[in-house]
Amino acid sequence: MNKFVNTRDEKDCQSDTKAIIKGLANNGGLYTPTDFKSIDINDLDNNSLENENIDYKKIAFKILSHFFDSFQNEKLKESIDLAYDKFYSKEVVPITNIGDDYLMELYHGPTSAFKDIALTMLPHLMTMSYEIEKYNKLIYILCATSGDTGKAALEGFKNVKNTFITVFYPNNSVSKIQQLQMTTTAGDNTNVVSVNSNFDKCQTIVKNAMNNRDNLLNDKIDFSSANSINIGRLIPQVAYYFSSYFRLVNRNEIKMGDNINFSVPTGNFGDILAGYFAKKLGLPIDKLICASNKNNVLTDFINTGIYDANRNFYETLSPSMDILISSNLERLLFYESNCDYDYICDIMKKLNENKKFEIKKDILLSIKNTFVSYYATDDDIINTIKSNFIDKNRLIDTHTACAAHAVLKFNKEYNSKNKTVILSTASPFKFANSVYKSITNKTNPDEFKSMKELSDLSGENIPPNLSNIDKLTIMHKDNINFEDGINYIKNKITDLAK
């Protein structure tokens, strides 16, 4: 049985089902797999390679069953079918051209963002784990979001029995469309709260609550997480790195075994860590290009080995990446330090106390073998959106623009002959005002008019889940200060226990 270890405690080793249910270890550590036996990419999905359309579900099954071996194959396959039948594209994750590069379109799910890939799957993994462990408690799911995770989690867990979910988002720091997506969510087990602070504070509320399980919980309720700190959220994302590779092989763009690069817009480091997992499994990835925005803490870290969150926090045109504490970096450092638990405890303590740490030079050199990083200012984002629309006839959102801009910088610095895939993490219609202004130099006060204008300009259809969202009823209006977060959760637990 594959085991999942706590990055901060060698003795805390859990089964896949328990790691998924717990989400975060009691001491703040992250459960992470130890078994990275290479998957032979030549055998991974030969049947689908013979077809015109790669079968994403088969690839997802191979990846998920490789890590999660407690689930019966038929139940896992059924769950994958149910999760990905919700997508508007039969391919689930299409690969299209953008100039000389490729766009991995991750936004064809029910909330038009890449988080759907994992958060349509996580409720099934949670439910199966619940049954296997014969769990008799209500699972209270805590989720912090910088914009996209929240709605995807709400949509995934909506009306799932034995669960209740609270989503915390930074007030006035998400797009109007993102806010409406969350606050109009129905379901008798959903709860949305705006916090008068930034995403890092929202994430701190969740982590502080989960680190204080003993003081907050009773015998009827337990915590879990829908953020990528939960290994059940992270593993499903590995599949789309493999599927995109196979699609390019199938189209004769690359040969099986050729190296490839991926450019990933990231704030919490989960999406790009899934690519790192894919590489550890044997996918021939040369470089993972870490694309940041003006909150460039990750770019500085990868270039210098110093992680320093003592800096100005910027609200940018790519709000889902407005993050200074990147939780999943801990998993990367765990592997790159050869699973040195004491070392991880030490640097995470420094991060918690001083918001800063520096890694050893040999670890930095090892990281640089795979990762490069660049950041984009808001002006870079605007220019990249406009140039891609005018020169390449592609409409991209503000986060994808960070990744496209990073590719330009990468190409100037490296003479790489490898194909590069840009991860497009959200529909451009989710950030309609910013994209519209970037292309037209005009300001439109109505985001829904911007969506219509963008559709007319590009010829692309507005995603069905976004087209009439302004007509839906607001279901959630709670607003709190950061300091009130734990008390809010405590009161919610009291209500749920009644």
Quick description:
The protein is an alpha/beta fold and 498 residues long.
How do the strands and helices of this protein lay out in sequence?
Layout: E1 4-6, E2 9-14, H1 16-22, E3 31-33, H2 41-44, H3 46-49, H4 56-67, H5 73-84, E4 95-98, E5 101-105, H6 115-119, H7 122-132, E6 138-144, H8 148-157, E7 163-170, H9 176-183, E8 190-195, H10 199-210, H11 213-216, E9 221-225, H12 231-234, H13 239-250, E10 260-265, H14 270-280, E11 285-292, H15 297-304, E12 306-308, H16 329-336, H17 341-354, E13 356-358, H18 361-368, E14 371-375, H19 378-392, H20 398-413, E15 419-424, H21 432-440, H22 447-458, H23 464-467, E16 478-480, H24 485-497
Parallel strand pairs: 5-15, 6-7, 6-9, 7-8, 8-16, 10-11, 10-15, 11-14
Antiparallel strand pairs: 1-2, 1-3, 4-5, 12-13
Helix pairs in contact: 1-7, 4-5, 4-13, 19-20, 19-21, 21-22
